[in-house]
C-alpha cells in the first residue's frame, strides 16, 4: 500500500493527538480528581486467606467519603491482585505510582511481599503503611513508613516476648522451642531462646522443621521426653492444625503448663471452628479479641459492618486478625491529612511521627522508623471453648488476655486443667 | 537475512534501547517490559531443546531459579557487578543442563519430562535448606545504584534484559541455521534414523541442554536486582515452567520466531490482565490457550500462517 505525503501528514497528526490526549486529559482532571490510595492484596494464591483485608480498606474509604472525603475530595481505593507472588509486586506498585498516580500506599500483606517494594518506596520517597509486615523497615529506615501492626520496637525478635513473660511469672524453668523453618518463625524462635536464657530458663529442646511437614508425632514424642514446663511453638496454619491434633492424641506429659506462643492459624475462624475444644489451654498471640479491656472507639461498629460483607464474600467471618488493622492503616492517612490540611507526603509523615493517632485498634504512637512505640501483641488463652460454633468467639471469656498486663482480662489456667474442661 | 546482518539488527535494537528512558518517561512500562523480555529469553532458551530437538522440558523454572540464586550468591559473596552475575549464572545453567542431560537424555518423551520436574524439586529443596541463600524465608538483594544514564534501576535491568534477549535470539537463529540445528531437527524427526545417518545424537543433545540451560539461567540472573528480594517459591515457580512451555507452543517451535512471538503475546496479555482483570486469570488463560493451540494449531501461530498460505500458493499456480 502506498501512502501519499498528505496522508502521511494526516496520520502523523492523528497519532500525535492520540498520544498526547491521555496526558492532556489527566492534567485537566488532576485538580478535582479523587485522593487515591492504592495497594496490592493477595486475592488469589497461597496467601488468599488474607484477602479479607480489602474489607477493612473499603469500610475506611466508605466512612471517609460519607464524612465528606479528604480535604473535600473523594477517596478512591485501587487494589490489584498480586497472586501472592513477590515477582508481581514491583510492576503493580509502579503501575499504582506511575500510571494511577496514587497519593498514598499500603504495602501488600506480610514481610515477603513487602520486601520487594521497600527499596522502591524509599527511592521514590513515598508514604507507605506496612500491613502486618515484620521488620520491613529495620534496614532501610525509610522515614515515611508506618506500621499498622502492634509488633512494637525490635518486633523481629521480641514480638512474642509476652509468652516468655508469662512463663517467667509462673516459674517455668524448662522451655522447649519448636519452629517452622521460615523467616517469621525462625527469628521469633531465636528471640525466644535469647529471652529464655535472659530469664535463666533451660532450653531443653530447640527444633526446626521444614514448612511442608505435616506429621508431628515423632517431634511431639521427642519434646515430651524432655519434660518441658513450657513449649513455645512458631507455626503456620496447616502445621498449627497438625500440631494441635498431635498434642491432643499424644499429649505433652504432666510437666507442661504452657503451650503455644507464635502459632499462626488459631486467629482464623476456619481453624477455630475445626479445632474447637482442642484449643482449650493453648496460650497464643493475637492482635485483637473482643475482651472488655479492648473496647476501642469504633471497633464494635466496624466488626458489625464487617460481618455481613465477610459472609457474602465467604471470607473469615470473625475478622479480628487483619481487617481492623487495615481500617486503622487508613485512619493514619485520614487523621494526618485532616490535621495538616495537606496531601504532602513529608508533612503527613512528620505529623504522624510527632502525634498519637486514635484508631479502632487504640491510640498509636510511632517511633523514628514507623514502628509502634509500645509492643501490644496480645497473649490470649483459649478457655471454655465448647463445640465448634464460631459465634462463641464473638463473646468475651473464650480468648482471655493474659499479657500485656494493661489489657489483661483474666487469669492463666494451667494447660492440663484448661484442657479438662 | 544473513547472520551478520541479523546480529547487526539485534545490536541496533539494543542501542535503541539505550535511548528508551528518554523517550518513555513512565517507569511502569519498563517494569512490565522487563517481564515480557524475560519470557522472550526463557521461551527462546526452552525452544533450543524442547523445539529444535523435541525434548519437552518441564524444568525451566529450575534453570531460571538456579540463575537467580547464582547471581544473588555472586553478589552477596563477592560483590560482583551484574554482567559477571549473568555470566556466572549462564555458566551454572550450562553445567546444570549438561549434568541433567547426561543423566536423563537416555530416556525420552514423558519420562524425560518427569525427570526435569524432579530437578525443580531438588534445587528448591536445596535452597530451602541453605542458610546462606536465605533458606525458606528468602533474601533481600539491594543492588548498587544503576549507571546515571538510565535514570532508575528498572530502566537499567530492562536494558540488560534486552541485551540478553538479543543475544539469545541471535544464538537461537544461528543454531537453527547451522549444522547443529539440522542435527537437532533430525533427532526430533527420528533419533534412531539420525544416529544411523551419522548424527552425533548424544553430543548434540548435550550441547542443546547446555545452551538451553545457560540461556534460561541467564534470564534469571537480573531477577534479584529487579525485585530486590529472592525467595525459592517465586524463583522456582510453576508458572515460569508453564509459560516456558506455552509460549513456544503458541508461537511455533520450528524456528526462532515462534518463542519470540508467543512470549510477546502471552506475557503482554498476562501483564495487562494483572492490572485489569486481577485474578488467577493469568494461569487460566495460559492453560486454555495452551489446550486450544495443542488441539487446533499444534504447529503454533507460525504453523497456522503457513497452513493459511499454502492454498493461496496453489491457487496462484505457484509451486509449493
UniProtKB/TrEMBL annotation, chain A:
Keywords assigned: Amino-acid transport, Signal, Transport
Domain Leucine-binding protein: 34-378
Pfam family membership, one: Peripla_BP_6
InterPro entries: BCAA_transport, Leu-bd, Peripla_BP_I, TAT_signal
Family: Belongs to the leucine-binding protein family.
PANTHER family, alphabetized: LEUCINE-SPECIFIC-BINDING PROTEIN (PTHR30483), PERIPLASMIC BINDING PROTEIN OF ABC TRANSPORTER FOR NATURAL AMINO ACIDS (PTHR30483:SF6)
Name this polypeptide is given: Amino acid ABC transporter substrate-binding protein
Organism: Chelativorans salis
Automatic annotation (TrEMBL), chain B:
Primary location class: membrane
InterPro entries hit by this protein: ABC_transp_permease, LivM-like
Keyword Transmembrane on entry: yes
UniProt keyword annotations, A-Z: Cell membrane, Membrane, Transmembrane, Transmembrane helix
Membrane-spanning intervals of the chain: 31-49, 56-76, 82-103, 110-127, 156-175, 206-226, 232-251, 258-277, 283-304
Record membrane topology: Multi-pass membrane protein
Pfam families: BPD_transp_2 (PF02653)
Compartments where located: Cell membrane
Protein name: Branched-chain amino acid ABC transporter permease
Lineage: Bacteria, Pseudomonadati, Pseudomonadota, Alphaproteobacteria, Hyphomicrobiales
Amino acid at each position: 500500500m502506498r501512502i501519499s505525503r498528505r496522508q502521511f501528514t494526516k496520520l502523523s497528526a492523528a497519532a500525535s493527538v492520540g498520544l498526547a490526549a491521555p496526558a492532556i486529559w489527566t492534567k485537566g482532571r488532576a485538580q478535582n480528581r479523587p485522593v487515591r490510595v492504592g495497594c496490592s492484596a493477595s486475592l488469589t494464591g497461597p496467601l488468599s486467606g488474607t484477602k479479607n483485608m480489602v474489607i477493612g480498606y473499603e469500610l475506611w474509604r466508605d466512612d471517609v467519603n460519607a464524612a465528606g472525603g479528604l480535604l473535600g475530595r473523594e477517596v478512591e481505593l485501587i487494589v490489584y491482585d498480586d497472586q501472592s507472588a513477590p515477582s508481581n509486586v514491583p510492576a503493580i506498585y509502579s503501575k499504582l505510582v506511575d500510571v494511577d498516580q496514587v497519593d498514598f500506599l499500603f504495602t501488600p500483606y506480610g514481610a515477603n511481599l513487602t520486601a520487594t517494594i521497600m527499596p522502591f518506596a524509599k527511592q521514590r520517597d513515598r508514604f507507605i503503611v506496612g500491613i502486618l509486615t515484620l521488620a520491613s523497615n529495620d534496614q532501610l529506615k525509610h522515614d515515611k513508613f508506618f506500621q499498622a501492626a502492634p509488633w512494637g520496637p525490635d518486633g523481629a525478635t521480641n514480638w512474642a516476648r509476652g509468652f516468655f513473660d508469662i512463663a517467667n511469672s509462673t516459674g517455668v524453668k524448662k522451655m522447649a522451642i519448636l519452629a517452622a523453618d521460615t523467616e517469621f518463625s525462625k527469628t521469633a524462635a531465636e528471640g525466644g531462646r535469647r529471652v529464655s536464657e535472659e530469664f535463666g530458663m533451660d532450653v531443653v529442646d530447640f527444633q526446626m522443621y521444614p514448612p511442608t511437614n505435616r506429621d508431628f508425632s515423632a517431634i511431639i514424642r521427642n519434646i515430651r521426653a524432655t519434660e518441658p514446663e513450657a513449649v513455645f511453638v512458631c507455626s503456620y496454619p496447616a502445621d498449627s492444625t497438625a500440631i494441635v491434633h498431635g498434642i491432643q492424641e499424644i499429649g505433652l506429659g504432666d510437666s507442661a503448663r504452657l503451650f503455644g506462643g507464635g502459632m499462626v492459624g488459631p486467629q482464623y475462624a476456619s481453624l477455630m471452628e475445626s479445632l474447637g475444644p482442642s484449643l482449650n489451654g493453648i496460650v497464643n498471640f493475637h492482635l485483637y479479641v473482643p475482651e472488655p479491656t479492648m473496647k476501642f472507639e469504633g471497633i464494635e461498629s466496624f466488626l458489625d459492618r464487617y460481618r455481613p460483607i465477610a459472609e457474602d464474600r465467604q471470607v473469615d467471618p470473625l475478622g479480628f486478625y487483619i481487617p481492623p488493622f487495615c481500617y486503622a492503616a487508613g485512619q493514619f492517612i485520614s487523621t494526618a491529612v485532616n490535621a495538616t490540611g495537606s496531601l504532602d507526603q513529608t508533612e503527613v509523615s512528620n505529623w504522624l511521627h510527632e502525634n498519637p493517632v486514635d484508631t479502632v485498634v487504640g491510640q498509636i504512637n510511632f517511633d523514628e522508623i514507623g514502628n509502634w512505640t509500645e509492643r501490644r501483641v496480645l497473649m490470649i488463652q483459649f478457655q471454655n471453648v465448647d463445640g465448634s460454633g464460631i459465634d462463641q468467639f464473638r463473646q468475651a471469656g473464650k480468648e482471655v488476655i493474659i499479657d500485656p498486663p494493661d489489657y489483661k482480662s483474666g487469669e492463666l489456667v494451667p494447660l492440663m486443667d484448661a484442657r479438662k474442661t | 537475512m544473513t547472520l551478520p546482518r541479523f546480529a547487526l539488527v539485534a545490536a541496533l535494537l539494543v542501542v535503541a534501547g539505550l535511548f528508551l528512558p528518554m523517550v518513555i518517561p513512565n517507569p511502569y512500562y519498563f517494569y512490565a517490559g522487563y517481564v515480557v523480555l524475560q519470557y522472550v529469553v526463557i521461551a527462546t532458551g526452552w525452544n533450543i531443546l524442547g523445539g529444535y530437538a523435541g525434548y519437552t522440558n518441564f524444568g525451566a523454572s529450575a534453570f531460571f531459579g538456579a540463575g537467580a540464586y547464582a547471581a544473588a550468591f555472586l553478589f552477596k559473596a563477592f560483590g560482583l557487578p551484574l554482567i559477571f552475575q549473568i555470566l556466572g549464572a549462564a555458566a551454572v545453567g550450562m553445567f546444570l543442563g549438561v549434568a541433567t542431560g547426561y543423566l536423563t537424555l537416555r530416556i525420552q518423551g514423558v519420562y524425560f519430562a518427569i525427570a526435569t520436574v524432579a530437578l525443580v524439586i531438588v534445587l528448591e529443596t536445596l535452597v530451602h535448606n541453605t542458610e546462606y541463600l536465605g533458606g525458606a524465608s528468602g533474601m533481600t538483594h539491594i543492588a548498587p545504584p544503576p549507571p546515571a544514564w538510565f535514570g532508575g534501576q528498572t530502566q537499567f535491568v530492562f536494558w540488560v534484559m534486552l541485551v540478553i534477549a538479543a543475544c539469545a535470539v541471535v544464538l537461537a537463529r544461528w543454531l537453527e541455521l547451522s549444522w547443529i540445528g539440522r542435527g537437532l531437527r533430525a533427532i526430533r524427526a527420528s533419533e534412531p534414523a539420525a544416529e544411523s545417518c551419522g548424527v552425533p545424537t548424544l553430543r548434540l543433545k548435550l550441547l542443546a541442554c547446555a545452551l538451553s540451560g545457560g540461556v534460561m539461567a541467564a534470564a534469571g540472573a537480573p531477577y534479584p536486582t529487579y525485585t530486590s528480594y529472592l525467595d525459592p517459591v517465586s524463583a522456582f515457580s510453576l508458572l515460569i515452567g508453564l509459560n516456558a512451555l506455552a509460549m513456544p507452543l503458541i508461537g511455533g517451535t520450528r524456528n526462532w520466531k515462534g518463542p519470540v512471538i508467543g512470549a510477546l503475546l502471552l506475557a503482554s496479555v498476562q501483564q495487562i490482565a494483572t492490572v485489569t482483570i486481577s485474578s488467577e486469570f493469568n494461569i487460566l488463560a495460559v492453560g486454555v490457550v495452551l489446550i486450544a493451540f495443542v488441539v487446533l494449531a499444534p504447529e503454533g501461530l507460525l504453523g497456522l500462517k503457513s497452513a493459511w498460505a499454502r492454498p493461496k500458493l496453489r491457487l496462484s499456480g505457484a509451486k509449493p
